[in-house]
Amino acid sequence: MKEISSEKHPLIKQIKRLIKSKKAREEEGLMVVEGVKLVRELENPSLLFTCHPQFESPGEVYLLPPDLFEKISSVKTPEGLLALNPLPQETPLENKHALLALDGLSDPTNLGAIFRSALALGWEGVYLLPGCTDPFSPKAIRASMGATCKLPYQKITFEQLKQFKGFTLLSAGLNGTAPSALPSNEKRILIFGSESHGLSPEVESETHQVTIPINASMESLNVSAAAAILLYEYRRKA
């Protein structure tokens, strides 16, 4: 185990850069994963950083004093373990059966929660349409409980999405069909729109909208709550 005591150390600067910047993550092909459970689930972390002298790992480990670890941590109460890990690579998804697409989601907590629900309910991948926040930011990774690192994804435009044959394109909206009115065992792509603006105009006009019936005293559901309900409703049949 090697030791780092200075905030000016190149690796400390790198961690800060990767936490703050999507561009840095993409250019360096790395992300920061923090927390004991999430780090333990990584297959081949590049580097590990801890403030616990007793920590053991077969990989390359750096020991930091607690005050330095707190300075680089992205959480209020750090567990004292983080890793640099290669970014997951995009995966073609056309041969899958049950997919979802995110249309301009800007909140990393909502995006992460949707990834978590999708993985838990047997969905096979996520299309990221333009305007989505980075699924590999620390907030998104934490909200997903690591699902953004496990569920296949691909960045794509809606125009490209429309070219795929054999899929029913569904979208969550306010003026659509009740979920129970549609079969759940067909090939489908379920699309969720932005938290503040909803679906983009082209998605709204060229997909079959589904609507969750709710009490009239509420206008709508949070997008991650709506996603969990619809992902369950249309979950893949074994």
Helix fraction, binned, reads 25-40%
N/C terminus separation: 46 Å
Structural classification:
alpha/beta
Would you identify the regions where 5 or more consecutive residues have pLDDT less than 50?
none
| Strands, total number | 11
CATH fold call of the largest domain: Alpha/beta knot
The level 1 CATH classification of the largest domain is Alpha Beta
The Cα radius of gyration reads: 20 Å
Order of helices and strands: EHHEHEEHEEHEHEHEEHEH
Q: Number of DSSP helices?
A: 9
Shape: elongated
On the 0 to 100 scale, the average pLDDT is: 92
Give the CATH superfamily of the largest domain.
Answer: SPOUT methyltransferase, trefoil knot domain
What percentage of the residues does DSSP assign to strands (E)? 15-25%
Instruction: Please list the strands of the largest sheet in the order they lie side by side.
Output: 8-7-6-10-9-11
**Could you say how many structural domains there are in total?**
2
Main sheet: strands, sense, barrel? 6 strands, parallel
Q: From the coordinates shown, what is the CATH architecture of the largest domain? A: 3-Layer(aba) Sandwich
Features:
2 domains; Alpha/beta knot; 238 residues; 5-stranded mixed β-sheet; 9 helices
Plain-language structure description:
The protein has 238 residues and is an alpha/beta fold. It has two domains: 85 residues, 60s Ribosomal Protein L30, Chain: A (2-Layer Sandwich), CATH 3.30.1330.30; 136 residues, Alpha/beta knot. The chain is built from nine helices and eleven strands. β7, α6 and β8 form a beta-alpha-beta unit. The radius of gyration is 20 Å and the shape is elongated.
